[in-house]
Design goal:
The protein is mainly beta. It has one helix and nine strands; from the N terminus they run E-H-E-E-E-E-E-E-E-E.
Amino acid sequence: DEVQSGANQSILIVHAGLVPHTRPEDNKAVDLMHMRNIIESPAGLQASAQDKQGEAWAKRWTGPEFVVFGHDAKRGLQVEPHAIGLDTGCVYGGELTAFILPARELVSVPARECYAPIIDKSKTAPP
């Protein structure tokens, strides 16, 4: 599949995400590595590593850069106008997905095996 979104934009690649309406260099390192969602707060948009509150940050990203990211296997492939999430759960037996540049082509191959079980952290209570 070919992705036309962001065809004339600069491309940024991050592990997890960026806070919308914040310059990439002004994002916190912890957010770049762990965020999944954006939460509205009195102080503005806040990054969250949780996926149960707020919304996927990529839905709110308006650029100017086109962002390629991962770290969100639960949601799977995410194709938004200014961002694309490639985590399709290979480690859990899903697929490994690549975004080929400059062609902007998506390619996925199935995992050879399940390398790690999916752990539902909401069901694991501390001792």
